[in-house]
Structures are given as structure tokens and as C-alpha cells.
Amino acid sequence: MNPSFLPVVKTNSESLISSKIPHEGCPMGTVPIQRTQVDNLTDLNSISRLHLGSNLLNNYQPLTTASPGRHFAALTLLGLDTVHGARAGFSIYNPPVKMNQVSMSQIWIESGPPAERNSIQVGWAVHPRIYGDNRTRATAYWTADGSKKTGCYNTICPGFVQVHPQYHLGQAYGATSVIGGEQYVTQILVYRDKESGNWWLVIDNSIKVGYWPKELFTHMKGEASFVQYGGWTYNSPDGVSPPMGNGRFPNDDIKSSSFVSQMQFVDKSDLFVDIDEPSASSFADNTNCYNKKFWGHQGSALGECFTYGGPGGNCGI
Known about the structure:
By secondary structure, this protein is mainly beta.
């Protein structure tokens, strides 16, 4: 199965290198199945609840019990009515993360009121509780009710439909970026197919990994209304938050910071639209631990660019 169309993406890679996920080929007519450390429903529900209230627009309450253990540094698009998708390039890093911690960099595409929030979230993550290791892996999550009763990572439970025979969610990246050295980037596109209404995941501009059926959602059957880019972390029971991005605060050198580049959304005409400063609002809930910076347009290689990250530590509730 393939989508009815693929939005045309124009990129100039310049010195940015795409970090290809190693091939894990399957026989004709079959697809890869992810292996995880999640072995029971209780664990799955507990992990999914990390995403409760995970967007900043409706739940930005820094250092309160509204979002215990979670911290954000992200850029939100304001005033959107109809969104058919979003894309961006994320520099890939491998921050040190302990067993009960999470560090993830991602796109959020969402719609609906908080109690009924429909959400697709895609990016890279270091998540030992799911994967059983500290490698950086392609990771996605969806929910149809703000993570109250629905919500699932990758293909751990029914939801995302795997299509590609080689590339799949949960795979580790072949290489990660080095601060001050080689930069590896994953290009992520999530968009609504205009014929089927399904939400497709495309990586590196042309690899159609799979899709989320429109039937999963109540408020995203036709379009979404919210787009966000950036990072979030979850801390361990000892209260220490892990690094976000490359573990450093954003500085005056984009390529030595953890960055999101080529940020665009897909409008109601299925055309890519660049983000502009008046429509963007950035947040960091504890600037002692994480921070952010919106750079605007930075040439053809980076496009609209946002940097974020930090060392974590004792960041509060």
C-alpha cells in the first residue's frame, strides 16, 4: 500500500548528513516487527501515561504537579486552523539516559480539546524502558484521548501500520552527531493522504515507513490544528532529569547546538508553508535545565531553524 501522493520536498543538504537507519530487510510480502522490553499491559499503560498533557499550548504549567517529571523546550505554531502535516530535520544525538528516564526530540501534530486530544508524535528518542538499551532510535507515539485510555509507541500495540519492508520504528540510527564535528540529521514528514485520509510517516524525504489509519482518531479524521517542534524529558524516581538534545544549552553556533531545521507545515492545499516568527511561540519550562532559541530563516540548507536542549539535572517537579 502507498499514499496517493507525496508532497515535493526541496532540500539542500550542504554539510548536513542524513543518518540512515541500517537495513533490516524482510522477505517479500512481510514487514519487520519491533522487539521491545515492554512485556505486559501494566507496563505499557504506565509508559503511555508519560504523554499525558504533552503539548505546551494547553498544559504549560512550569514546575507544578500538572506534568510531574516532564520538562519541555519547544516551539509551537499559533493561529492554525487546518493542518495536513508537518516536516522538519532533527540533528541526532545520543544523550546519556538512565533506565527510568526518557529524552526525546520530535514533531507533535495534534487536534481536539485536552480531554480528547488526538496526537501523533514522531522523532528520535533514548528510552531504555522500551528498548532495553541507550541507543538513539526512531520513535513515534499516538493517542486519541490525551493518553487517558489510548496511546501507544511504535507498533507495540495496534495502531501504526508498518508498510516498508526494511525501515521501521524502533530502529537505531547508524550514526549520531558529534558536538563541533559531523552532524547527522533525520528528515521527518507526517502528512494526511488526501484520498485515504490516513496519516503517513515518511523519513529522509522519500521512505514511506507506514501510516496511522484515520479511524484511530476523532479530531484528526480531516485535519489537525496544532504543530509543535522540540524536545521533552522525563526524570527517574530520584528526581534527576536527563540531558535534552546534545546536553548543551543553545548557543550562537547552530551546528554545535541540537537543532530542528527546515520546519514547515502542510496547509489545506497540501502545500508546504514556511514558519514565520509572528506565528511561532517558543517555551522552556525551566531555563536552569533546558533552553531554546528560534533563529528564523537560515538559508537553503537549514531553512527555518530552532535550537534547544540542556544538561538537565535537579529540575524540580
